[in-house]
Amino acid sequence: MSARLPRSRREFLWQSGGGLGGLALASLLASEQSAAGGVTAPNSHSAFRTPHFPARAKRVVQLFMAGAASHLDLFDFKPELVKRDGQPSDFGEHVEAFQDGLGPWKKPVWEFRPYGQSGKMLSDAVADLGHVADELAFIHNVVGKTGVHSQATLLQATGFNLPGFPGMGSWVSYGLGTENENLPTFVVLPDHRGLASNGVKNWDAAFLPQQHSGTVIYPGSETPIADLFPHKKGEFVTRDSEAAAHAMMAKLNLAHATARAGDDRLESRIRSYELAARMQLAAPEALDLSKEPDYLLRSYGIDNSRKEWPKEINAEEEADIFGRKCLVARRLLERGVRFVQIWSGNDNGFPRRNWDSHEDIERDHGPLARGMARGASALIQDLKQRGLLDDTIILWTTEFGRMPSTQGGKGRDHNPFVFTNWLCGGGIKRGVTHGESDQWGYKPLNRNAPTTCYDIHATMLHLLGIHHEHLTFRHNGIDRRLTDVHGDIIKEILA
Amino acid sequence: MKLLATVLSLAALAVPAEAASAKPSSTDWWSLKPLVRPAVPPIGNQQSATGNPIDAFILAKLREQKLTPAPSADRGTLIRRLTFDLHGLPPSPEEVDQFEQDAAPQAYERLVERLLASPRYGERWARHWLDVVHYGESNGFGMDRPRLQAWPYRDYVIAALNADKPYARFVHEQLAADAMFPEDASLVPALGFAAAGPFNQSALVEQVDGTDCKRMALNLDRDDMVASTASTFLSLTVHCARCHEHKFDPISQQDYYRLQAVFAGVGRAERTFDADPQVRVRRTGLRGLIADLEKNPDAHPPTAAERGSLATAQRAWEKSLAAQAANWTPLSIEQVTSTNSTTTFTKLDDGSWLATGTAADKDVYTVRARVTLPAITALRLEVLPDDRLPARGPGRQDNGNLHLSEIRVSLAGTNVTEKPKPIALRNASADFNQAGWSIERALDGKPETAWGIHPQVGKPHHAVFELAQPSAVTNGVTLIVQLDQLHGQRHLIGRFRLSATDKPQPVRAPTLPVELLAKLARPDAERTEAERKQLFDLHRLVYLREQLAQLPAEQRVWAIAADFAPLRNYKPTKEPPPIAVLHRGDIKQPLATVGPGALAVVGTLPAEFALPNAQDEAARRAALARWITAPENMLTWRSIVNRVWHWHFGRGLVDTPNDFGRMGSLPTHPELLDWLAVEFRDSGGSLKQLHKLIVSSATYRQKSSIQSSVSSVQTGRSPAPASLTEHWKLNTEYFQRAAATDASNAYLWRMNRPRLDAEAFRDALLAASGKLDLTMGGPSAMQFKFDDPNKEVAPRVDYAAFDPDNPASYRRSVYRFLFRNLNDPLLEALDAVDPSLSTPIRNSTITPLQALSLWNNRFVLRQCEHLAARVEREATGLEAQITRAFRLLCTRAPSREEMALLTEHAHQHGLAHACRVMVNLNDFLFVN
């Protein structure tokens, strides 16, 4: 009898997901409250009838570059490196390199040019983002904790550098619930070539109830969502049997529940099948790009005419891959999905299909960055045109940065000491840069005032109407938070 | 609806009100008070039907709340409840019939005895324990390497529970079996406990010592062991004190780092052991002898008797070597080319070829050579060291290694237009194989597998390949030999030589160095005395190594170990390194060093260990184990009885089983908790006795719901009320009051009704379908498609592509292979644990994605077909078949209306589809 019973009905309601229990449960909740008064202290919500702050945003898109994208070759222009290119590097202090990354200084692989009214300098590899340069808020002084891929990925994705903690999307799902119960609240669009470091641990609900786990979707594949439809080998299932079974099962389960009064879970299960059936209709519709106009597909870099791609990594294919995820993200956001996480790059295999360019920045970063910039730029413009950018936050992030020096060849080693994030959309100031790195892009210019992922997360929760210190879940004796015991809102990037 | 979502979700945004209360200055807290056996409360004439003291405690509290216990459940309900509880499986219809018809007054007790005596009990309850100790079978983090030898710990737990090992002994073995029971090596797998958690391979193995990155990772690695030990055995959250004095509980940073010092001397590794003591003695002796003789051949002169047997063995050895020896003729190589333009080849005087220039990640060398023998039976590839190669080679990787993915040989055409004709090779052998990279992999046709020689770098090696059809290659023809080296990261051959022989097959690569073979080729009379001595010494080592090899293979378990084979930069320390208290948990801010010890907060025991030799690593762990199990350690005994209670009732007497501190809950029945703790401790710590005590109580046997009306389906009356809200009103006044007083049933005025957990669902489905394989133990069943087990980084598996009729699919879920980063979607939907952290309480969610999994998952659908086929075999007529299937899943027989609906459905859509409906019924998913 190990399965855990909820400690209270209220807790049960969270376990069932916001709204899942339906109106019947809501009335039960109301009656319980009136009957029991202010029961069960730890998570009583009586103090929070309204959100902590007026929300500026409702939805989030997180663009995650696996393998660690170079701030120096994309967003953080360092004229000093251009000047000193090829000279022996001198950091003025002992540097703990991850591999052998203390070769000569290396200038950015691409030219930088100014864009928009802000005149933001961007690399040619991300020239497409120039169209939206005035929408973006850059933070160039983000610091990590280690140069180990797994820990760094976990830190940016979950706020902890150990496995076992909920992803940011899980926290947002837990805090805000769903806007459309026919679709998952938190959707993950992994790189189709494989999961990033830590696999599913980057979006796991961990100790939060399971419905806050990121739902993995592979748009365009045979089974975009696991078990959405009967497995094709189950040949005894037909369209008719499916429909007849649903009706009968509801009848049998309702009779069972009726004979066991006071157990809300029994009715919730009945309802979970109704919602599942609705998801079977809603998900394929949300993922169907066939009705999107050609000009829009093109703007995202999607090329339906291509049947085959070259074996070597190339910008057109990367744009097609990333653009499809961005367009699917827009369709999901429109339909009420709260949090979409898009991954670029797989784990550390060879040939490189991620941003971990130890050997050759140009070879890997070039196609990946062009593809990413095309899709991200199109998404921002598309959301703006539809009025959705006002209450959608987009966060571009990665594991850490890369060193201003080479590893002897054409690549760069890990740099957890400084890297770049950018945000845009709901509540974010447009066309600004906050926080600078030093002349090399090696560490923050002001080493006493770096930006951490806690600050980024706190700021985003703030815009979603949540005080980051109050979004907690007690697990093994600790009130866990996305921001651990840290986090300051970055006022400078708030609109 | 939107409004509702907002209200519900804001429930998540609570501030813990009591968190603000001040940290206690003393140990004045319920869980830290010494254990004293409370008196069983008098309950007057409202005696428990069973006379079980548990009922007296429960009744006393119920009376305070003006509640009364529910009546006993019927027998069908009880056997289903007990079997799922103790076995994680449903009772068979035959077992149900037998129990329902057993008129003996002791029928229930006999059932309990039978269930506890079955090995299924250990399998079920081991899973609970594995949740708490966060047992997983891969390293987690970025690499997530599989741990193929973690399972002996799982088997240890199952066996220990089945054997009803006293709890103190169970604790001792898991923390310090090696120190406390050194004579019994079969207990070594118990040491898997502290190693069960994740392992940060990229930081611990790849990073060199002394870097911040490595020191931080080592600190967190010890933290995992400390946190796991304190949570599991003491129900305390000591890990809060890694960065600061515990905010809520009187645990100092010093206490915490004392515990780190206990584990300072161990790493996580595959630990070898011989469960058989005779084998262990023999192996230890031979190893010592070999190690001594390798250093000094005269360290142990052989006795006369040994001399005799050695001489006989040497004669046989020389004879067999002579028979094996082949004459090798170097191939006359005309040209060597690389697919990579930056690599060129130079011919050296000894007929070998050296690769120079920039090495590519991958390469294919192509060799054209003329054959100068009448017929070739085998080819030999030598890879040779050279000072110009990294680590002296023979490979071009930085560490001197190489990976030969494939060797391919063909016969060149006689003119330009004629295509080369492939020549098949077979029976590959080599003088040395890297673990997991043996020579047959160069002939398996798979570019991703290869032959390697690490760590035996800087030395010559050779591999021999037989030709499948020796007659194909004759004097004068030209051979094309292609050496595929496709693993990447410059795992390329640096220097090589190719030779051929015409000796009749079999031809195998001798495991001796080539130069020694030459000496052996001469008859004994022609050898010098020095050569004779050299050969004698050499053979003696060969002989002893053979003796060693003939012993049964050593067993391995992923466990903590003070001594283990180094893995790159992850090495054992000679003795435990000093542990300092870290200011704010920062490795750059060490304060005073601390010795091994435990928690001052347990006032009944000294916190510092008095060890005769403080540097004795194992003695530290033994001291901690004794401290934990001391009768005076009130936390330990309260912790375990509360866990057992939690697993029986779905809720502990303290409903935070890992936290008895101020952030945890208060016990609902403090006296009962203490009574159980003392009773358990003083009667020898038998878990089976504790189970018996609990499940025989009237409290456990209660009904789970008050059934005020009978459902319409069961009686055929008018339709059910539109919603439960409406139905609620139909219930008795008492039920309303009870539900209002104690909605969460903390006082146990009825039994709880758990949803089947992930493993119970899967196992019950297999039991019903007749496919359950009850084989116990051994390597874990991989219930997924796993294409590339040798991939170093982040393996990939596919659960959906796994054949549900693969025999591995039929094993009990406790034996499934548990990747940390790759969850089984079906089990995850049912809240299977994430072994990153300890899981004292399973979540039990109900979600649309879970409904989709149970409804559509390939494994589930296949079992529905098996279930249908089974009942078609076992019963005649559709009604009987449906009854059988229903009973296999839900224990009870279907009502008349249920039968009518299911029969009609089976008529229309097939029996398998009716089974699919039954599998998704609440009646199956919940245990009353």
Major protein interface: A-B, 140 and 153 residues
Sketch the topology of chain A as an H/E string, one letter per element.
HHEHHEEEHHEEHHHHEHEEEEEHEE
Oligomer: heterodimer
- Structure annotation, total helices of chain A: 12
Helix count, DSSP H or I runs of 4 or more residues of chain B: 30
Question: Which strands sit side by side, in order, in the main sheet of chain A?
Answer: 6-5-7-1-8-11-4-12
**Separation, N- and C-terminal Cα atoms of chain A:** 53 Å
Low-pLDDT parts of chain A are: 1-50
Instruction: Count the beta strands of chain A.
Output: 14
Q: In one word, what is the shape of chain B?
A: globular
Please bin the fraction of helical residues of chain B.
25-40%
Major beta sheet of chain A, specifics? 8 strands, mixed
Radius of gyration of chain B: 34 Å
Distance N to C terminus of chain B: 32 Å
Category by helix and strand content of chain B: alpha+beta
Could you say what the CATH topology of the domain at 326-509 in chain B is called?
Answer: Jelly Rolls
Indicate the overall shape of chain A: globular
Q: If you average the pLDDT of chain A, what whole number results?
A: 87
**Helicity level of chain A, as a percent range?**
25-40%
Summed up:
The complex is a heterodimer of chains A (495) and B (928). Chain A is of the alpha/beta class and 495 residues long.
Describe the overall structure.
The complex is a heterodimer of chains A (495) and B (928). By secondary structure, chain A is an alpha/beta fold. Chain A has a domain at 59-219 and 289-397 and 457-463. In chain A, 32% of the residues lie in helices and 13% in strands. An 8-stranded mixed beta sheet of chain A has the order 6-5-7-1-8-11-4-12, with helices on both faces. In chain A, α10 (315-334) runs parallel beside α11 (361-385). With 928 residues, chain B is α+β, with helices and mostly antiparallel strands. Among the domains of chain B are: 166-269 and 572-620, no CATH class; 277-322 and 532-556, no CATH class; 326-509, Jelly Rolls; 758-925, no CATH class. Classes of the chains: A alpha/beta (495), B alpha+beta (928). The interface between A and B is large, with 140 and 153 residues.
